[in-house]
Amino acid sequence: MGQGHGYNTSTWGQEHWTLTSTRGEWQRSREDKLRSLLACLKARHIDASRLAFTALIELDPNLSTHPILSQIGAALQSTNLSLGFELSKALRLQAIALDTSAQEFKANALKAKSLRKFIGKNSISAQRSRA
Would the pTM count as exceeding 0.70? Predict the structure, then answer.
């Protein structure tokens, strides 16, 4: 809760993002916070890692249920920085795989869009030639 204000600051943060920012800005902020967490874990700074983890979860509470991130949070809570670091490597590998999948998805979506345009133009031409 916010001190003496009677509201949950993490809820306010989510509402603030949805009211004042675009989805892209929120996504970039989430990615920045995740990068910060990974950098802190790599540098083996326990307090900075905890702060970065908290900031990330406050921005997107849904990440608290992510299998690897929840384990990183538990490792940081128990001051097991070496486990947190090892888990961060697994998270990086997962992110690389997801990024590759996202790029492939975008490429396939562009191909499908081009195909729909091509089909649409040809069907309009066919309709005009019949008329």
Answer: no
